[in-house]
Write a structure and sequence with these properties.
- This protein is of the alpha+beta class.
- About 30% of the residues lie in helices and about 20% in strands.
- It is built from five helices and six strands, in the order H-E-E-H-E-H-E-E-E-H-H.
- A hairpin with a 2-residue loop joins strand 1 and strand 2.
- Helix 1 packs parallel to helix 4 and helix 2 runs parallel beside helix 3.
- The termini are far apart.
């Protein structure tokens, strides 16, 4: 199989949607990289307590470090209430950047996505003028994965799985008994 390039944040979000089966909300998603190759996708909830942020950051970095070939990570902050350049970086961000650097997998690039917009992260790096419209479902990478049979965003009501058929006595006679 050939290599498909992720050429922008649309493609990165599309890749995450396919890898996780959905594009999560109110989450931090980290994609490990081996140089420029996308590898593991890690989704985490943001930390709840200020006193646990260092431990949370070290745990997240440890999970990403399990990809022994990772050389860096891409960070995607998925926060529906975020606004480009509106607030300083949250207190967990420096702790996470530090923990990832100590694990030898620094943040190569970071984006925040809210609704149908994305911008460079953390706040202060991105401004409203850098926010761009995104459509991960129709990105080139997402459409390529869809053509290969991958789907994402399906809900239980979208999928019909027939109930298993109960085996009849005749079916049981067709199969030999297992060896003891």
């Amino acid at each position: 199989p050939g290599t498909l390039s992720a050429r922008g944040v649309d493609d990165l979000l599309g890749y995450v949607g396919h890898a996780l089966g959905t594009l999560p909300r109110q989450s931090l998603v980290l994609v490990t990289l081996e140089h420029r190759l996308l590898r593991a996708v890690v989704r985490v909830d943001l930390p709840g307590h200020a006193d646990a942020q260092g431990r949370w950051a070290r745990t997240v970095a440890g999970v990403c470090r399990r990809d022994a070939r990772a050389t860096a990570v891409l960070a995607l902050v998925l926060d529906a209430s975020a606004e480009p350049g509106a607030a300083p970086a949250p207190p967990w961000w420096p702790a996470l950047e530090d923990a990832l650097c100590r694990a030898d997998i620094p943040v190569a690039e970071a984006w925040c996505s809210a609704g149908e917009r994305a911008w460079p992260w953390p706040p202060g790096r991105g401004t409203a003028s850098q926010a761009r419209a995104v459509s991960p479902e129709s990105s080139v990478l997402s459409l390529h994965l869809l053509a290969q049979g991958s789907v994402w965003g399906l809900r239980d009501r979208d999928v019909l799985v027939p109930p298993p058929r109960r085996a009849a006595p005749a079916d049981a006679r067709r199969w030999p008994a297992p060896d003891p």
